[in-house]
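ok so for the tutorial part 2 we go from a plain amino acid sequence to predicted structure tokens. step 1 is just haveing the sequence, like this:
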Amino acid sequence: MMKLKYLILALTVIMVSCKCKKNKKACCENHKKEQQAGNYNLPFSYMAENLEWTGATISDENYTIWGSSPIMGEDEKVHVFSARWPELNVDPGWRRSCEVAHYVADQPEGPYVFVDVAVKGTGKDGDWNKFAPHNPEIKKIGDYYAIVFIANDNPEKGFHPGNQKIGLVYSKSLYGPWEKAGKNGLILEASQDPNHWTHGSGLGVDNPCLTEIDGKPVVYFKAKTEEIKGSTGKAKYSYAIAESIEGPYKMSDETITDNDSYLEDATCFSSNGKHYLLTTDNHGHMSGLKGGAVLWESETGFKYSLSKAEIAYKLIPDYWKSFDKNKVNKVYGAQAKFERPKVLMKDGKPAYLFAPSGWNVNGDKRVVCYVLKIK
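step 2 — the prediction. this is what the tokens look like for a chain of 375 residues:
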């Protein structure tokens, strides 16, 4: 009986070994993913396993820095458009006094120098963007550089207010001047049609990112699909598309992510003929990693499924080996996690991850944006 047991075991090993020899790369990758995934709902991506802490930051002693979107300029410099505000705290600064500032460096690791303010609130009663342009993303679409962002007309309506709307400005130069698309820069808001899925969204429309599909500008955006008492509720992503960067932008009637939970903070990019959407997973409902992020993959860019998703990145201590929880300044949030991720593309490939955190790992008083290299 014991000999039979060992014989079966030996045959199993031989069969697995033969299978691996036939497709060694795929087999090893599958084993690697199985080992990496552990108890998580999704496997770890190549990005998650190959991020390198550079120590570089987008920082300013007079401003709190949050979401920072990078792009390589024609001058071969790295241009970053950051959400910033003068208050030390994250809330309510982000929805009350935020602006989009332009920083430049000779290389991704910096140092970064302030250049100008690209987008400011109008300060005028009745304007949709009276307050706090926030959540910027910069992309080159055709002949134009474009920045999508959110803003509001009243910052006192709550932490995630329903009056959030999405705007866009564009220019042929990263140094401006910036022209406003749509009506006074407004391109998207929650639908007034009671049959549309965004109607009555408790957070309006927010967390936009910008890409180009089949030569047309496409804006991904988030809206709340269900309110749950005592919870953040459910939110999904969809898209709006236009013929040209100036708009108008037409919202899809359907959502494009199949999550049944809450997600936010998207960025997007295309590489090797595929489209990617990177969203945070602050509650861990999708990936199983609370405070992590999800990297979604799509052939078309108009439908994203968790069946083709991976964990985009882990928590800060996984990359900053000198992390000391007794040294950090916990400005905002209960975890040492990344927020508002953005990706710097070089030669058509993701090269660096830019992501702020509510925790300053060096113990400094202000929030900064960290720069990690994708090895």
